[in-house]
Design goal:
Keywords: Pyrimidine biosynthesis, Transferase. One of its GO terms (molecular function) is aspartate carbamoyltransferase activity. By secondary structure, the protein is α/β, with parallel strands linked by helices. It is built from eight helices and eight strands; from the N terminus they run αβαβαββαβαββααβα. The protein has helices at 12-26, 49-60, 81-90, 128-142, 160-171, 222-229, 233-238, 269-290, and strands at 38-43, 64-66, 95-100, 116-122, 149-153, 175-179, 203-206, 244-246. Helix 2 (49-60) links the parallel strand 1 and strand 2 (64-66). The relative contact order is 0.17. The mean pLDDT is 96. Bound molecules: phosphoric acid mono(formamide)ester.
């Protein structure tokens, strides 16, 4: 694996190798990198979790982080993404972690560059490092994927997490269902209410309503959206024993999930963020070691 672009391209063997290495990092094993590597994080869209988690992971595996601030870069003078990344490559950087508003922005970078690309989110495309940390969270909980019932609920159409997780979980043998308003089902078949899913799901994964991508509430108020599609206190009581709640965050509290459930016993929302650190250490080590 030279780059991490989308979960379509990551084999089940590679997924399991990354999960295993993440578990070793979590157990305190040191990095296996034997030379100096340089990494830069190019975030053209806002991020709290992914950016800080990648930077922490880079430092923990011994890579040198070269700062990049999109708001003070020559992108503002009209430089293309290709020219920006090629310029960074010429500065001796081995890998870039990129978040960008354009779907599949990485396609323009695949010819003519010798730098590893790690996709930290492309438009409404995919978010593979989030998917891998979601997989790690589920695997730690259940010890398998085969037959696990995962329901992904909310703004599916705009969600790169939904797409990445649906691809990866299906490949690994989980059963993936969607609950959302008809307007937000995107390319997927979906249930338009919780009736069939709430009592049978092992994992309920809630998605943020993405106002920045023009996901209006489509005739809902925040309250009515929460009542119809959110995880309410009453719905949580109907979840089966051992079932868990996930959300990639940031959260619209009181919309996707009742605020009192964010840190309830079933919730793995903050655990997902911690798991992300170990997963990103594993991803970076995997890709940087492959560069020799
Ligand atoms: N889950 C996630 O991608 O969060 P950030 O946008 O804060 O990175």
């Amino acid at each position: 694996m030279k780059n991490l672009l989308s979960m379509d391209e990551v084999s089940t063997t590679e997924i399991m190798q990354i999960l295993e290495r993440a578990a070793q990092f979590e157990a305190g094993e040191p990095s296996q990198l034997e030379k100096d590597y340089y990494v830069s994080n190019l975030f053209f869209e806002p991020s709290t979790r992914t950016k800080t988690s990648f930077e922490s992971a880079e430092r923990r595996i011994g890579a040198t982080v070269i700062p990049f601030d999109a708001g003070f870069s020559s992108v503002l003078k009209g430089e293309t993404l290709y020219d920006t990344v090629k310029t960074i490559q010429q500065s001796g950087i081995d890998a870039v972690v990129i978040r960008h508003k354009e779907d599949a922005y990485y396609e323009q970078l695949l010819g003519g560059l010798d730098i590893a690309i790690i996709n930290a989110g492309d438009g409404t495309g995919q978010h593979p490092s989030q998917s891998l940390l979601d997989l790690y969270t589920i695997f730690k909980e259940f010890g398998r994927f085969e037959g696990i019932n995962v329901t992904i609920a909310g703004d599916v159409a705009h969600s790169r997490v939904a797409k990445s997780d649906a691809v990866a979980l299906t490949k690994l043998g989980a059963n993936v269902n969607f609950v959302c308003p008809p307007e937000w089902q995107g390319e997927f078949d979906a249930h338009y209410d919780w009736d069939q899913q709430i009592e049978t799901s092992d994992v309920i994964m809630l998605l943020r309503v993405q106002h920045e991508r023009d996901a209006a509430y489509e005739g809902f108020t925040k309250e009515s959206y929460h009542e119809q599609y959110g995880l309410t206190i009453d719905r949580e009581k109907q979840m089966k024993d051992g079932a868990i709640i996930m959300h990639p965050a940031p959260i619209n509290r009181g919309v996707e999930i009742d605020t009192t459930l964010v840190e309830c016993e079933r919730s793995r929302i903050f655990a997902q963020m911690k798991n992300g650190l170990f997963i990103r250490m594993a991803i970076l080590e995997f890709i940087l070691k492959g560069r020799g």
